[in-house]
Amino acid sequence: MKEEEEVVKKRFNFAKLLVFLLIAYIIGYNIYRVIKSPINNIYIENNKYLSDQEVIDIAGIRNYPSFILTFKYKIKNNLFKNKFIKSVKVNKNIGNILTISVEENTPLFIYNNKVVLSNGEQVDNNKYKLPSLVGNLNDDILFKFSEKYQNINDEIKFMISEIKYDPNNIDKERFLITMNDGNYVYVTLYKITAINEYLKILSKVNKKGILYLDSGNFFEEIN
Fold first, then answer.
1. pLDDT digits (tens, 9 = 90+) for 9-36
2. Do 119 and 46 sit in the same domain of this protein?
3. Beta-carbon count within 10 A of 35 CB
């Protein structure tokens, strides 16, 4: 006698499938929302010459893109394309907050209609009020002057209206600086920081004239 095999057919559980699909959808949707969640706030630090908006635009995050998909290295690469940027630090913080701290190449002066930056680069940008450097300087003198000029205090730099390369038979690194108060100052590169005492020296003289800081440290009154 043959045993009869009982074939049991299981019903397809449509309800369980719907629950599974619903859970998968909820999980997938929430993952999508997290990935697409935009940057909430952008903070720019230590910038002085580039505005916050300029830094944001150069970084390529003007439209506040996805926080997760915004990569630090891309922001840095974008910013380093700009000659005003010397170094960059990028931090991503809780709350979708992005902080960009920059160190700039400082604009020093205008030479041959170019803005000379602290790293020696020259750029086409005349929106800054800077003194003009005039005269025929070779590359070596220009580089040395750019380096030394950075040691002048900001307070004094703001008082300088023009710088003229004015070498003589004794010193090939001599400059005549025109101050916006009507005085003139002769300096040489190895003593250029002496101009940081300008206000102190002039307070004792209280006259208009020429201050010779290149040699002798004396004041000549202009009648």
1. 566 677 777 878 888 888 887 788 888 8
2. no
3. 11
